[in-house]
Design a protein that fits this description.
alpha+beta, 6-stranded antiparallel β-barrel, 12 strands, 39% helix
């Protein structure tokens, strides 16, 4: 069959494309033909799931889903009535100095007795054995005072330990943010390390963009990149690069670049965005 001239040209062009296609793919894989923008998904800049380190029954949860909390604010309480009763007892023991004062008085008396017996022995009115017994009484009194002081110090340490245990029964948020999910309700029993509440920070947002290596090599921490949000409320904001990965993804020849994006309008995390790969020039 004889091909006409237009058909011959089409076949030649098709063969040329097929032959060059591997080189085109290789160039694209190396980032030589990559686009100037990549798609990514926003995520919270802070995201913590809170748990107790011990089991117990929830006695109070002041916040619910959607509420805002501040860093170090208590968001959940375990029933700690027994621990507080024990704390009061140990506190009383730690503040009681009666045993120390009694030991000090006994030691002072034993020293007076020893002094008198020593003088008496010099006048041959007391025996050497009596003096030795008086010396032992002083030593025993000194040890009793040391023991009283040690027991007092132990009570102070137990007071500190008891306070720590009570503190661990109060769940504090390590970040300021929004309660994203409350996993349990007041009155329920929870196990140690069981999820109780999730708190997220969405202002600012973070965007982890996989940018081709050739372009990512020009991006440094502190650089500014434009981030465009998709409909229904399209908007372009300027974010700041806070991290560039040290290891590339060999499969896609990209580097992960983390951009911090201000979010005063309180957009939810998890939206699709488009990240411009070329840094914004500072004026």
């Amino acid at each position: 069959m004889t091909l006409t001239l237009p058909k011959q040209a089409f076949v030649v062009a098709l063969l040329a494309v097929l032959c060059l296609w591997p080189f085109v793919q290789g160039a694209t894989g190396l980032g030589l033909m990559s686009s100037t923008a990549v798609r990514a998904i926003t995520k919270p800049s802070g995201d913590v799931t809170l748990s107790f380190v011990q089991a117990g029954r929830l006695s109070k949860m002041p916040f619910k889903d959607g509420d805002r909390v501040k860093a170090e604010q208590i968001v959940a309480y375990l029933d700690d009535r027994a621990e507080r009763a024990r704390l009061a007892q140990i506190k009383a023991q730690s503040e009681d100095l009666t045993q120390i004062m009694a030991s000090q008085a006994s030691l002072a008396q034993k020293k007076v007795d020893l002094k008198k017996l020593t003088k008496a022995a010099q006048l041959f009115a007391a025996t050497e054995l009596e003096v030795e017994h008086a010396q032992l009484d002083v030593r025993i009194a000194e040890l009793s005072l040391d023991l009283a002081r040690f027991e007092h110090d132990q009570a102070v340490r137990q007071l500190h330990e008891s306070q720590i245990r009570i503190d661990q029964m109060q769940l504090r948020s390590p970040i300021s943010g929004i309660v994203a999910q409350q996993h349990v309700e007041t009155g329920e029993s929870v196990n140690a390390l069981e999820e109780v509440m999730r708190v997220v920070l969405t202002d600012p947002l973070w965007v982890d963009a996989s940018i081709p290596i050739v372009q990512a090599a020009l991006i440094k921490p502190g650089a500014q990149l434009n981030v465009t949000f998709y409909p229904p409320d399209p908007n372009t904001v300027t974010g700041r690069v806070i991290h560039v990965a040290a290891v590339a993804d060999a499969a896609s020849n990209t580097l992960t670049v983390r951009i911090e994006v201000p979010n005063p309008s309180k957009r939810p995390a998890g939206e699709h965005v488009q990240v411009q790969c070329t840094p914004v020039r500072e004026e």
